[in-house]
Amino acid sequence: MTASRHAPRSTNVQRWQRPLVAVGVLLCLLTSPRPAVGAERDGEHAAYENLIEVLADFARHLRDDLYRFPPPADVTGGNLFAVTLTRLENFRTLHPADMPDVVSFAKAEAYVRLGDYAKAERAFQAVARLDSPLRPLAEQRGAVIAAMARAADLPERTDTLESRIASLRAKLDAWDTLVRDNTGETYESVCRREEERIEGRLLSTIIENRAWLDGGSDTAVGSAAFMVAKHSESARAAAHALRLADLQAALARTCAGERTNGKLDEAAFEAHVAAAMEIYARIASLDGVPEKAEAEGKLRALEAYRHTVLSDVH
Amino acid sequence: MSTDRRARGRAGAARGTGRTGLALHRALLAGVLGFSPARAGYALTPASDPAIEHARAALVARFLDDRHGVESAHEAIRRLDLDRARDDREDTGLADQLHYLEASSSPSREAYLEQLRDALRSDPDVYLAGRMRWAMASDELVTAQRLMGAARHNRIANLVNDAARPLGRLTSIALSGLNPAVALTAALDSITATGGNLWRWRRPAAEEREALHRYREHLRRDAAPGNATSGDIIPPARMHRLAARVAAADCNRALRRARAAAEPATARAHLEAARLISGCETRARREEPPPAEPGPAAARDPRLRPADPLPRMPEVVVPTYHAMLLALVRAEPAAIRSVARELHDSPAGASLGDEAQYVETVAADLEGRHQDALTSLRALADAPSSNMGRHATELLRQPGTDRFGTLRHAVADHRRARVRYVLMGSNRKPLGDAHGLARAGLRGLQGLQNFGLFNVFGLVGRSVQVWRGDPVSNAPIIAAGEDLLAREPGSPHLDEARDLLVDAYSRSGEYERALFHLARMGTPAPKRAKKLRDRAASRLLRVARSEAFGPRARQRALDLMLAHYPDTESADDARELQSQRAASEPAQLPSTTLRSDRALAPRLGLPSEWLDGRGENGELADGDLRLADDGRLLAAVEVAGDRTDHSLSLDGEQTAVFVAAANETRHLTAARDAGGAPRGAPFERFLPFFVEAASARAAYRSFPGSSRALCRATAPTCTTRTRPPAVLP
Fold it and tell me: Do A3 and A80 fall into the same domain?
């Protein structure tokens, strides 16, 4: 006891400094990032560990409704299907003879969800040639994907406007048939997403060429409104609404640009502006959609534009 | 998997089971479950390694939606690991992965989360653990719960902080005994802040809006029959209450925007949007749509303005007056001046002297003599009782009349705003006299807290901010200056205007525009130009280094910097950064990967003695192998402690193998870094305390134990680091 009582005190930290040191350490502990656990994956089956991890995440999202929801994200934030495909290709390069049926089957499913149906069909055919338990499923899905690949391969002519619209309509009909055939099946959402994509392309063609079509503006507005109503459940519903609003804003600008003798058709101009503003305001009030910020900005821009045009007129 | 863990696994197996236990376990698995991959029907040609065979069987079963097959393969791998532990061999490392695969085939999200929790308890390696934590944290409901927890935490922290801060100031406590006003004002401040926070208590935070969105997404996603809505994680009633609060806030916001809209069309659009919000329809209908007329546009319509009466004049001057009007309509300065002079000199037209002088002013302006016109206009304005005097006064008030005066006023306003910011902490102009007085009074009361020190710390901090970066907008100065330069290229004040513009652009960080105007000034200013170039280069270098920008934007900033400012102080740093980037671009493969995957080195054509563990014949050095631009593989080899660099030629297949292995390593590292970090103590999240600091360029906020955010003025979003959620009971 005596020895300890008279033991020399620590000279590194004086008594008065101790509370300061304690506070400093506490602050450091509270605000510093947590140290990462240091462990590496270096076992003899490391490549298979990676493969199983990748395919576990992938398989969990195979049933996702890609029409109603955006594609799932990988742990790094990228599109899960694209990342899976890259990693499967890495595995195939590094271990070309290992698990060819599993790798090809997974690649085929990834290609389907990325919209590359021709490659998906080839990958399913590769599995169907192997002696694998996945063979029947690959044959069955390969047949469906072959029909999808044929629909995707239908030409989109660009020589004249009429032929382009006709070819897009033919393609849309083919996808519509596929949607009906696959209702309740694995690839229903993929077919619906593809149909929506083709419809969007057709709508873009009509909007871009509305000046050359009979009643082009009305047709474009009608088509865009139809798209909004038909795909209200889609993950891209807000984008469709935004496109309709953009179209109304563009028609308002056209209206302002086509003034004759300085006279503006104020009623038509105001109608287009009001329609666009209403949709922008509605999108701006939505939460959780990336189009919200865009709609807010466009609403302000259109308000300023309307002010400028009317100031010029009055 | 780490060697430590493998050792723990072996020790645990030996300690917990023993030889008898192992035999019993094997008998149970083989006999009772009766599983083998061949029986399950997924085996092809048996692989040389049974672990790979089981892994393949599990993957095949997973794609066939055969949950039982996945479970059986998982059990087989566990059994194999026990066998290997008995033989004192490392485990396969695949059991945790198969557990994860098994979890992925769970029929519901509740079962999935339960499986993940179960898998985490078996202490998987850091990569898989991170992936599992990420998977749990990215669940819609779990995220919603976390966000709502964060919102509640922030709300409580703000309430407590704002209530305690004024009372807890050191000077307040020390001086309250000397001056009761200190305690009084501190209490007043605390009560006011707390009242404000309580008033805003039910206003939904951004986190709560996000939580509601995720909850709704979850309901949409899991609407299939048989899927519970997980009332155990978030009670639905709570979300309904939140939805009502959000709808009420949205309704208020839409109606507020409708009332504040400058144009009736905008107001109507907001009212239409408000009608679609749940529970807002009645309120939106109650709001009277703003009348189309007489709005601001109608007020501007000249057709609605009353006509000015003609001035009274003697009959003899009517022809001269008429001629003057004709000259004005034709916009002929010489004719205007001549007729105006005639009118001015005639005795009968003495009553129209002001009109004649004003018309001469117009003629001078039409001739481009703006200064003469301005002088004349000011002379007219000196007689405010006459019609022309009032008109001249109004004209002088308009922004386009005296452009240099407008510029000087903008500069003076800016100076006042800076002083106001330093002294009062706000650069906003008071809304009116009453507001200005109230604000000054409040600041004065706050100053009393420091008993005459006038909040020295705040004053010094804001002075530094004004010195380092301008917190006040320079936009009015820039608008006025550019307007003067564009519309009056012959103005005698051009150099002065450019000088003011250089300062304004420099303060607002637009150094390129400042240099542009500096180069066009009459007198060269090399020192000032060098300073601006240094600042411009330094800013580009900051962008090039910042993680807040994407790689393309960073590289673009670096290229711009080296192209336009190669002679500045920052140029050397930029060149060094460029060389580092160039060096880090090629594909890289850590030497540890080659040591762990023994099959990789022969496929890349590396000599086997580089990896045989014997230093005397050369051993691959620690570090990365790189692929050079010419396709050669660069590797460092140590022989008896001496390090030498080697380069090897690779053929197409070897290059593909190298790139695939490098990509795989890079992805694994990225996934590990992005994955969830280990769980912390949950109570730390609820410390009602945060640290906050802000400058003109950046703001930092830390909720100790919960999250940190760094917001830069130059970055579109804040960089946030959040502690992983403590959601697992």
Answer: yes
Task: Give the CATH number of the domain where residue A42 resides.
Answer: 1.25.40
| B300 closest CB neighbour out of A60, A270, A311 | A311
B635 has pLDDT over 90: no
B170 against B342, higher pLDDT? B342
Q: Which of A229, A262, A282 is the last residue of a domain?
A: A229
Cβ distance A307 to B262 less than 8 Å, yes or no, reads yes
pLDDT-derived band of residue A272, with 50, 70 and 90 as boundaries? very high
A182/A220 same-domain check: yes
Same domain, residue pair A86 and A203: no
Inter-chain residue contact B273 with A281, CB threshold 8 Å: yes
Q: Look at residues B57, B53, B143, B42 and name the one whose alpha carbon lies nearest to residue B102.
A: B57
Q: Which residue of A has its CA nearest to B299?
A: A314
Query: In this prediction, does ipTM exceed 0.90?
Result: no
Average pLDDT over residues B188-198: 85
B18-26's contacts with Cβ under 8 Å and 24+ in sequence apart are: B19/B86, B22/B82, B22/B83, B22/B86, B25/B79, B25/B82, B26/B79, B26/B82, B26/B83
B674 inside 8 A of chain A by CB: yes
Provide the residue range defining the domain that includes A8.
Answer: 1-153
Domain end marker among A177, A200, A229: A229
**Which residue in A49, A99, A310 is closest to B94 by CB distance?**
A49
Confidence check: pLDDT of B682 > 80: no
Chain B hits for A51, CB-CB cut-off 8 Å, are 55, 59
Angle between the B403-424 and B494-507 helix axes, to the nearest 10 degrees?
30
A200-227 confidence digits (pLDDT tens): 999 999 999 998 888 889 999 999 999 9
Q: What's the number of domains chain A is made of?
A: 3
A66 with A135, same domain: the answer is yes
For residues B199 and B461, the model is more confident at B199
Interface contact B250, partner A, CB < 8 A: yes
pLDDT in tens, A20-75: 666 666 655 544 444 333 355 666 778 888 899 899 999 999 988 999 999 998 88
